[in-house]
Recover the amino acids of this structure.
């Protein structure tokens, strides 16, 4: 639009300038003025002739709703957009009802350019449509060709609704075979809700014209459509209302599209609300264990506490660290799910042994609860191997059991599996608080929980079931639940199974003996002092000689200078030269030296890149001392 003029009704110069800058930054070119009172507003509407008005909701001497009323009396075609700091849903609805074309909350001012463009486009469309309607109604008897070919239904009817005239588009819109059949009807008979005609007629009697009055109609065959009515009352010389001329636009598709857009908008807003609630909850869930870790770490430094108290502090720090690690792993898994990189790694493992390990872990951690806890096995043999992803199945069962124990204060928790039609069907059953039926689908969605209030009794991130369902789906199975509030919940999931009964005897797992590596040299490539000190402390008890490289380049140079370590612990992310490059160079120099990469990267793509370096093994952070010792033991014999 050339020479666009925008009138701002705003009492704060800074807000006025901000609005102008945002619109200009969006590419709008326009003349503009700003006023802050009723008198100047009315006079400027006449003298400046703006194409659009942007008004603050509340001003010291004036307000947006009064401005809408004043503007209607001067030029009702000028769009007015309300810009405000806060606006609840009820006030927003009232604002639109009073005649505002749109509203923009100040914290979302990025919407202002699109709101302006949409309002101007709609205004132009309305003006054009009105010009067409008025031209048609004003030139009765003329432009017969136009009336017969326009895609809008044109008609004249009596006050009672009996048709006097109808154009071909009217005949088609209502599904008649010919004009003769159409002229036999009364329009009110085709209202889906006949009572709506009373409102339309009252408006027509009061104003003489009705514009864009939407009514659901039915066709001759009973099918439904939405019609937007524009009607003008026709009076005889004595002032009696004798006819009404109308135009009907079929807005069925427009209304459907509009409803879809509203639904999409509501869904997007709900998604934003859920993500905001999730972030707030996640902040709480992360800070809670962090508070214990930081707090009890400080208390460990206080010599006034007894050794027994300090041991309890260490247990709390370990427990909180594990909790924090589970939260981080959940967040990483959600990122993998959303980016489509979540993978399943199938390997044979002992099914019953894995379940017993889970059982022992929860039995020890839940001793304080007076609950019956049982493991129910679906296959009698202890040497049953299945070919699937043990880590992921553990994760699913752990997530389900954590929820079961969290929401069960008395009664029992059972878990196990059954053989069922070519699938292994795992189950976790509790006698806890149960889940309402209307929440039983919601809980599997991202960021959702049964209780999403700020005062909920039970903590948690709301990610466990989402992750569990995605993992089951990825393994080609199905996860479902049966639950009744106050009775408990039963979660079940299936995975396809490939069972092999082992024929060889399995030796019992032995605890590793203390290592004596006094004759070995271990090079640790690590740029972070605290990480090096941690690894050095673990290895000191082995009597191994420890040397340090502060980055990959340093590690390579030490080998070039003649040092021959028996094993290298290589960090990946280091300055000057990273662990990828350093490992590749070292392996080219001497591929006999074992290189164990230590990394915080955990994605499948990262692991592929790591293995491409030809390293001998990988250990992921956070590093468990026992795991580290076992990996090194493989190479130092």
């Amino acid at each position: 639009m050339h020479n666009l003029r925008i009138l701002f009704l705003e009492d704060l110069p800074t807000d006025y300038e901000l609005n102008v800058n945002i619109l200009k930054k969006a590419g709008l070119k326009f003349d503009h003025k700003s006023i802050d009172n009723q008198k100047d507003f009315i006079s400027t509407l006449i003298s400046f002739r703006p194409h659009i008005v942007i008004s603050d909701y509340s001003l010291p001497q004036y307000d947006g709703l009064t401005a809408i009323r004043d503007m209607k009396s001067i030029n009702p075609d000028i769009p007015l957009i309300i810009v405000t700091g806060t606006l609840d849903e009820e006030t927003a609805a009232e604002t639109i009802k009073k005649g505002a074309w749109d509203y923009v909350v100040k914290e979302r001012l990025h919407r202002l350019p699109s709101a302006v463009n949409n309002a101007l486009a709609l205004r132009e469309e309305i003006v054009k449509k009105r010009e067409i309607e008025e031209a048609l109604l004003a030139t009765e008897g003329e432009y017969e060709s136009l009336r017969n070919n326009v895609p809008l239904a044109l008609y004249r009817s009596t006050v009672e609704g009996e048709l006097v005239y109808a154009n071909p588009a009217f005949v088609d819109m209502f599904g008649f075979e010919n004009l003769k059949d159409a002229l036999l009807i009364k329009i009110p008979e085709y209202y889906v809700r006949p009572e709506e005609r009373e409102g339309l007629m009252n408006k027509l009697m009061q104003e003489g014209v009705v514009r864009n009055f939407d009514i659901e109609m039915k066709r001759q065959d009973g099918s439904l459509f939405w019609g937007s009515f524009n009607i003008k009352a026709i009076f005889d010389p004595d002032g009696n209302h004798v006819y009404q001329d109308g135009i009907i636009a079929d807005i069925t598709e427009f209304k459907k599209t509009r409803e879809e857009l509203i639904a999409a908008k509501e869904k997007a807003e709900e998604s934003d609300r859920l993500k905001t609630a999730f972030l707030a909850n996640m902040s709480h869930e992360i800070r809670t264990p962090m508070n214990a870790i930081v707090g009890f770490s400080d208390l460990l430094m206080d010599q006034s506490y007894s050794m027994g108290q300090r041991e309890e502090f260490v247990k709390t720090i370990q427990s909180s660290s594990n909790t924090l690690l589970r939260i981080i792993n959940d967040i990483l898994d959600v990122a993998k799910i959303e980016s489509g990189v979540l993978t399943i790694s199938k390997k044979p493992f002992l099914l019953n042994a894995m379940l017993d390990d889970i059982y022992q872990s929860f039995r020890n951690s839940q001793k304080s609860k007076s609950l019956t806890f049982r493991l129910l096995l679906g296959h009698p043999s202890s040497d049953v191997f299945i070919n699937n992803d043990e880590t992921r199945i553990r994760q699913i069962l752990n997530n389900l059991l954590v929820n079961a124990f969290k929401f069960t204060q008395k009664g029992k928790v059972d878990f196990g599996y059954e053989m069922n039609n070519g699938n292994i069907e795992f189950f976790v059953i509790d006698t806890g608080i149960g889940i309402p039926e209307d929440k039983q689908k919601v809980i599997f969605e991202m960021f959702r929980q049964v209780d999403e209030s700020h005062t909920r009794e039970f903590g948690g991130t709301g990610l466990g079931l989402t992750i569990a369902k995605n993992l089951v789906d990825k393994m080609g199975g199905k996860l479902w639940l049966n639950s009744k509030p106050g009775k408990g919940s039963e979660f079940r999931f299936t995975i396809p199974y490939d069972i092999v009964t082992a024929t060889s005897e399995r030796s019992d797992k032995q605890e590793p003996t203390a290592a004596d590596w006094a004759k070995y040299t271990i090079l640790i490539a690590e740029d972070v002092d605290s990480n090096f000190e941690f690894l050095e402390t673990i290895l000191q008890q082995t009597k191994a000689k420890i040397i340090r490289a502060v980055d990959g380049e340093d590690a390579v140079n030490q080998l070039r200078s003649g040092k021959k370590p028996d094993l290298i612990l290589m960090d990946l992310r280091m300055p000057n030269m990273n662990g990828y490059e350093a490992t590749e160079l070292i392996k080219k120099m001497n591929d006999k030296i074992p290189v164990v990469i230590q990394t915080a990267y955990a994605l499948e793509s990262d692991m592929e890149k790591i293995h491409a370096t030809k390293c001998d093994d990988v250990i992921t952070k956070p590093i468990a001392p026992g795991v580290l010792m076992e990996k090194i033991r493989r190479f130092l014999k």
